[in-house]
Amino acid sequence: MDTNSGRSPRRLELLHVAEDPVNDEWKKEWATYAKKTKLANAGKPLTNDPMEAAWIGIHMWKQAVEKAKTTDVDNVIAAMAGQTFKAPSGITSMMDPKNHHLQQGGVHRRSEIRRPVHVVWKTAGPVKAKTLEPVHRRQRQEEDEPDGKTIITK
Question: Across 91-95, 110-114, 115-119, which has the greatest mean pLDDT?
C-alpha cells in the first residue's frame, strides 16, 4: 500500500530505496540471482511491489505448510489464518484470520525528479482492510432503481 506523490515511473523504485535490514538482504539476494542467471539489467537490479507481494505470499505459504505439518491444501489454507511475515518494506504483514485478506502496512513516500525517494509517513503495523460491500451494494441498488426517464415498451 504505497502512495507516490511524484512521477509514476519512480513508483517501481520505492521498495528498492526502502531502508530496512530485511529489504537490504532481499535486494542482495535478488542482485545475486540476477547476475547468476544473467538477467537483463543485472548490473542494476530493481525490486518492486509485485515482487514483494510474491515474496510475502511464498513465505507465508511455507510457514503455513510447516504449521499444518502437511502439504494438504485444505489444511494449509486453514493454517494460513493469522500468519505474519516481515516484508522487505520493513512492516510485518498479516493474513486476516477470518477472510484471508492480506493486511499490509501503509507507507507514503515522496519522490521528486531531482531528489531521492524518502518516507514521509508509515504505519506501525499491518492495516486491516475495510470491506467495500456497502459501497457495492449501494451502487447495485442505484443501478437497479428506475431513473424515471426510461420507457419500457413491448
Answer: 91-95
Which of 43-57, 108-122, 138-152 has the weakest average pLDDT? 138-152
Domain ranges of the chain: 2-144
For residue 110, with 0-12 CB atoms within 10 Å meaning exposed, 13-18 middle and 19 or more buried, which class applies?
Answer: middle
